[in-house]
Amino acid sequence: MNDTSTVRRLATRAAEATPPPVVARVGGLGDRAIAWLFIAPTIVLLLAINIFPLIWTIYLSFTNFRANRPNAAVEWLGTRWYTSILTDPDIWAAMQVTARFVVATIVIQTVLGFLLAVLIDKKFRGHGFWTTLILLPMMLSPAVVGNFWTFLFQPQIGLFNYAVSFVTGLPPSSFQMLGDVSLAPWAIAIVDTWMWTPYVMLICLAGLRSIPDYIYEAAEVDRASKWRQFWSITLPMALPFIMLAVLFRGIENFKMFDMVNLLTGGGPGSTTEVASISLKREAFEKWRTGYSSAFAIILFVTVFGLANIYVKALNRVKQR
Amino acid sequence: MADVSIRNVTKRFGDTTAVSDLSIDIADGEFIVLLGPTGAGKTTTLRLIAGLEAPDAGRLSIAGRDVTKAPPAARDVAFVFQQYSLYPHLSVYDNLAFPLRSPIRPMAKAAIDAKVRTIAAMLKIEDKLANKATKLSGGQMQRVAIGRALVRDPAIYLMDEPLSSLDAKLRADLRLELKRIQAELGATILYVTHDQTEAMTMASRIGVIDRGRLVQIGTPREIYENPFNAYVAQRLGQPAINLVDAGLFPDLAIPQRTATLGLRTEHVAIARVGGAARGEGRGLVRRVEHLGDQNHIHVELDGTPLVLLADADSDIGAGDRVDVRPERPLFFDREGARL
């Protein structure tokens, strides 16, 4: 009995000594209420600029709404746009152009970016300077890059054509990077690679730097050659980072718009008409808002689905 | 297995000299333990032998071959790193098999498998072979690291505090196990530790190292009984040797120039002053630590604290007055050198 009273006394004293929680002093709001208060502005903003447009787009994709005729009667069409898009050979052509572009740029940029990272990771003299130099393209605005590459690709005065002619001996004005059906996709791939390989390099470099030196020391003592160290340590341990770079570049290039629009505008013909260019044409040149909404949703689901599958694979690699 | 010889090796990092004019000859089949505190240059010595560091001066030879400038792979050494250095993306099995898959010396798959399983069983990690190396406890990782060295048959095994992160029981087990494996394989081992028990129990010779210099090298017994100086005397013995002023025992015959007396805890006779006559005796017992098999008695003698050893059944308790008599003191001069 004496024990319980002691405990009670101690408890009371402890309670008296504990200051009241901050919230009690803020007009009777509970912890949860205050938490909501803090995140509400962000949530509202997110709803307004992300979720609402998404839902609205989904709604529009089932209608014949046209943004240039906002007062016309809106008719519910069901899944008609979806059927017509998925059976439209032009759309499939655009998707194929996009896929080829994505695959080509990812392969080139990953290989180049990783090799650059391996080179830069060697701690040679002035490697900080070279890193900065290599990263420069990535820091430029795409509009600037697009415009000056248009200039570089100029058949008569462009430096690119001149350089190619210097190496191969072809006359500089004998080919048009942006005007030739077979060259235009490569022109865009070259510019994209020039601009974004540094980004891949940066992520790969983070991966390489995350491999501790002592692993290599252990491998040295274990008589592993440099070649074997690269294949059995460097590459597998940097792989999650490489895959991350591939993911970022993949998503980016799937919706690639700026560079294509600036360099070729989808031409010549429709050789560089990637999905986002078709989408822009439908939405803002032909004003088929409902149709382009459906197209946008299809693109979104495609990217989202592919990215999800890929992230699962990435996580498996990381856990390996 | 082969002889390893280190001749006048010096290694500097900037302004600090990690290893200074170090010479050791390691005979085939010897188990040498380098003992010293953190930062004494033990690990650097191992790294120099492995070829992970290049010496600023001196020569290294393994099996009579000068390897001073040879890369690690050409030296035929195995290294157990203190921080394990396992290949994190590989399974335990692949970690153990990694050194055997060296293209320099191709080995049949079946032979690799047999070797890996033997070593895994020896280190009691055979049920972990399929695990990823990072999904293990610290002790298991350390055993994998040891195993990765043991699968090989190198000229010398270099081990950098390989038992440091194991619990006491496992450490004691593996100590015996390592010694047994070493005897069985006839392996040459250079082993670095700051744990004197490991040094005393495993070494055929102990090298005591201080600030990059080898102070003394000899059998554990020599080092313990005939320390070259006070520093070496302090490295061995648990509890540590008592270093007291030479004048503390006026009756003791001491050589000239003696500045410090070294009293091993077991080399001091302690007796409670006659029966009830407490309050006599020069020493006052401050504290008694009961370790089960022995008692550590903390005595204060004219203001100087001493730690002494008494039998488990000793009934000396705190507050007792005791007589203290040195039996086999070691004499050191002002610089700490043995007289």
TrEMBL record, chain A:
<protein>
    <submittedName>
        <fullName>Sugar ABC transporter permease</fullName>
    </submittedName>
</protein>
<keyword id="KW-0813">Transport</keyword>
<dbReference type="InterPro" id="IPR035906">
    <property type="entry name" value="MetI-like_sf"/>
</dbReference>
<feature type="domain" description="ABC transmembrane type-1">
    <location>
        <begin position="95"/>
        <end position="310"/>
    </location>
</feature>
<dbReference type="Pfam" id="PF00528">
    <property type="entry name" value="BPD_transp_1"/>
</dbReference>
<dbReference type="InterPro" id="IPR000515">
    <property type="entry name" value="MetI-like"/>
</dbReference>
<keyword id="KW-0812">Transmembrane</keyword>
<feature type="transmembrane region" description="Helical">
    <location>
        <begin position="101"/>
        <end position="120"/>
    </location>
</feature>
<feature type="transmembrane region" description="Helical">
    <location>
        <begin position="132"/>
        <end position="152"/>
    </location>
</feature>
<keyword id="KW-0472">Membrane</keyword>
<dbReference type="InterPro" id="IPR035277">
    <property type="entry name" value="MalF_N"/>
</dbReference>
<comment type="similarity">
    <text>Belongs to the binding-protein-dependent transport system permease family.</text>
</comment>
<feature type="transmembrane region" description="Helical">
    <location>
        <begin position="291"/>
        <end position="311"/>
    </location>
</feature>
<feature type="transmembrane region" description="Helical">
    <location>
        <begin position="34"/>
        <end position="59"/>
    </location>
</feature>
<keyword id="KW-1133">Transmembrane helix</keyword>
<dbReference type="GO" id="GO:0055085">
    <property type="term" value="P:transmembrane transport"/>
</dbReference>
<dbReference type="GO" id="GO:0005886">
    <property type="term" value="C:plasma membrane"/>
</dbReference>
<dbReference type="InterPro" id="IPR052730">
    <property type="entry name" value="Sugar_ABC_transporter"/>
</dbReference>
<feature type="transmembrane region" description="Helical">
    <location>
        <begin position="183"/>
        <end position="208"/>
    </location>
</feature>
<feature type="transmembrane region" description="Helical">
    <location>
        <begin position="229"/>
        <end position="251"/>
    </location>
</feature>
From TrEMBL, chain B:
<dbReference type="InterPro" id="IPR047641">
    <property type="entry name" value="ABC_transpr_MalK/UgpC-like"/>
</dbReference>
<comment type="similarity">
    <text>Belongs to the ABC transporter superfamily.</text>
</comment>
<feature type="domain" description="ABC transporter">
    <location>
        <begin position="4"/>
        <end position="236"/>
    </location>
</feature>
<dbReference type="Pfam" id="PF08402">
    <property type="entry name" value="TOBE_2"/>
</dbReference>
<keyword id="KW-0067">ATP-binding</keyword>
<protein>
    <submittedName>
        <fullName>ABC transporter ATP-binding protein</fullName>
    </submittedName>
</protein>
<keyword id="KW-0547">Nucleotide-binding</keyword>
<dbReference type="GO" id="GO:0016887">
    <property type="term" value="F:ATP hydrolysis activity"/>
</dbReference>
<dbReference type="GO" id="GO:0140359">
    <property type="term" value="F:ABC-type transporter activity"/>
</dbReference>
<dbReference type="InterPro" id="IPR017871">
    <property type="entry name" value="ABC_transporter-like_CS"/>
</dbReference>
<dbReference type="GO" id="GO:0008643">
    <property type="term" value="P:carbohydrate transport"/>
</dbReference>
<dbReference type="InterPro" id="IPR003439">
    <property type="entry name" value="ABC_transporter-like_ATP-bd"/>
</dbReference>
<dbReference type="InterPro" id="IPR027417">
    <property type="entry name" value="P-loop_NTPase"/>
</dbReference>
<dbReference type="Pfam" id="PF00005">
    <property type="entry name" value="ABC_tran"/>
</dbReference>
<dbReference type="GO" id="GO:0055052">
    <property type="term" value="C:ATP-binding cassette (ABC) transporter complex, substrate-binding subunit-containing"/>
</dbReference>
<dbReference type="InterPro" id="IPR012340">
    <property type="entry name" value="NA-bd_OB-fold"/>
</dbReference>
<dbReference type="InterPro" id="IPR003593">
    <property type="entry name" value="AAA+_ATPase"/>
</dbReference>
<dbReference type="InterPro" id="IPR015855">
    <property type="entry name" value="ABC_transpr_MalK-like"/>
</dbReference>
<dbReference type="GO" id="GO:0005524">
    <property type="term" value="F:ATP binding"/>
</dbReference>
<keyword id="KW-0813">Transport</keyword>
<dbReference type="InterPro" id="IPR008995">
    <property type="entry name" value="Mo/tungstate-bd_C_term_dom"/>
</dbReference>
<dbReference type="InterPro" id="IPR013611">
    <property type="entry name" value="Transp-assoc_OB_typ2"/>
</dbReference>
